[in-house]
Amino acid sequence: MSDDFDTSAVAAWLKDHLPGFEGPLSATKFSGGQSNPTYLLQTPARNFVLRRKPPGVLLKSAHAVEREFRVQRALEGGDVPVAKMHVLCEDETVIGSPFYIMDEVQGRNFDSPSLPGMTAPERGALIDEMNRVLAAIHDVDITAANLSDYGPSGNYYRRQVDRWSKQYTATQTDDLPDMTTLMTWLDGNIPPDDGQRTLVHGDYRLDNLLFAKDSARCLAVLDWELSTIGHPYADLAAVIMQWSMPATREGRGLAGVDRAALGLWSDQHFIERYCERRGLSGIENFGFYLAFCYFRMAAILQGVKKRALDGNASDPERGLQLGQFVPEFARSGLGAAKGTP
């Protein structure tokens, strides 16, 4: 038995539901994640990865591992690299919450977008691949992938602003006037629907990608918890938002970094190359999309903080550290809304 669940119960369930499975198995939790707890499952023959909903009381629609399983299975064999999905267990009596089993993907993962220890050409190649995969996600034929019903119709930003405003209010622990002002501004500045309806990842950044050990090829996009059918510029703006953060372990950004000297792309180059790949002439009113991303991340981190305080976070200490960024994201969101740094 691991500290988090009964491995013998998982092994028994897999024996009945995963052809060829043979135990015994051991489970080791991956560190650092703040969404759905994830574990390496080791057996004598091969390894797997288990991803589950966290225990405890959860907000409605949060931590939907069932959706993660569905979208990754739909993407198998296409231009968007994902781990192979095996089985989904929706029976909460097995370990206390739903979970799914996927292949272990052995690749390189980078916490820092400054990519320390690499050469300038290597950095540029990795960012180019990151850009390619993002465009590929947004070019997925959602009808052919049977994902047309993966998200509601209508204005994506309208429903997202409404959803995350409710989530933030439900988990609020401090009075943050900047967050209140930002939510009000977003509510009154929703752009008209331009007809783009694509798959969106919802948390697209470098540390959610696994790369080959000997090249810049992306092997898998991870953490599809926030994925839906929506508007692609939210994913694009999320990359730019992340890079604006402090270049620290907690911030995982590029603020103050000499990108040109390191071979890293500018924000504008990343946006332009993305537009080229998708056949777009450019993006108007990018400040809204950036402000939206700051707002959503503030709401997400507020939820992480609340779970840490309640004692059911995947990594409570890390959760409290991340929660300290909520005021900064709110301030930066207001800055993006006003067109200021």
TrEMBL record:
GO terms for molecular function: kinase activity. Residues 27-250 form the Aminoglycoside phosphotransferase domain. SUPFAM superfamilies: Protein kinase-like (PK-like). Keywords: Kinase, Transferase. CDD domains: ACAD10_11_N-like (cd05154). Gene3D superfamilies: 3.90.1200.10, Phosphorylase Kinase, domain 1. Transmembrane segments: none annotated. The keyword Signal does not apply. InterPro entries: ACAD10-like, ACAD10_11_N, Aminoglycoside_PTrfase, Kinase-like_dom_sf. The keyword Membrane does not apply. This is Predicted kinase, aminoglycoside phosphotransferase (APT) family.
